[in-house]
Amino acid sequence: MVDGEGVAATEPKAERAKTVLPGDIIGISEEYTTGEGAFDEKGNIYATIVGTVVEDPKKRVIGVKPLCDAPPVIKRGDIVYGTVSGIKSSVVLVDLAFIEGSENREIAGDIMAAIHVSNVKKSYVSDLKHEFGYQDIIKGRILDPATLRIDTTHPRHGVIKAFCSKCKVGMIRKNKVLECPECERTETRKISSDYGKGLV
Ligand SMILES: [Zn+2]
């Protein structure tokens, strides 16, 4: 998003159809004012929602427009993406964002799905806090559309983007653990093989 030379004044860039996730850097506060769907921290502007980056080149405002259209219907076997909104002793709560294949149609409203401790991975899970972090972006398969149970046992499923529990910055994969680029602490997750590769 941030190019070294800054944004050329002659170049019209009203809107760019790039899908971003919460926590993605969309600009720097030296160049832009933070618009809707974004927040500013330590000079960087981050997306707070799933959507497309929108910038107003005249007012120099950058933000994120939510994805919207008719809400898709969730079916068994659908691959879904969402944000971890709570971690209980036996279940992880996920705020669903969208379904794979319908990325341009955000799931309307607050649809809460859940990953039960028995559906996280094939091996034994002693503590869900070792597998997921608050606000992590996860990918999983819908087991039951009625109860919105999600399964993440497949190697490609699990956490695709995690945030340091202290600094809240995006963590970088180092083999089997994740490392924070700010404080260098390492954390564990049920890491998807698609970790850090973007949306799909
Ligand atoms: Zn950190």
TrEMBL record:
Signal peptide: none annotated. One of its GO terms (cellular component) is cytoplasm. One of its GO terms (biological process) is RNA processing. Keywords: Cytoplasm, Exosome, Metal-binding, Zinc. Zn(2+) binds at residues 164, 167, 180, 183. Its main location: cytoplasm. The keyword ATP-binding does not apply. Non-catalytic component of the exosome, which is a complex involved in RNA degradation. Increases the RNA binding and the efficiency of RNA degradation. Helpful for the interaction of the exosome with A-poor RNAs. PANTHER family: 3'-5' EXORIBONUCLEASE CSL4-RELATED, EXOSOME COMPLEX COMPONENT CSL4. Component of the archaeal exosome complex. Forms a trimer of Rrp4 and/or Csl4 subunits. The trimer associates with an hexameric ring-like arrangement composed of 3 Rrp41-Rrp42 heterodimers. Interacts with DnaG. Belongs to the CSL4 family. This is Exosome complex component Csl4. It comes from Candidatus Syntropharchaeum caldarium.
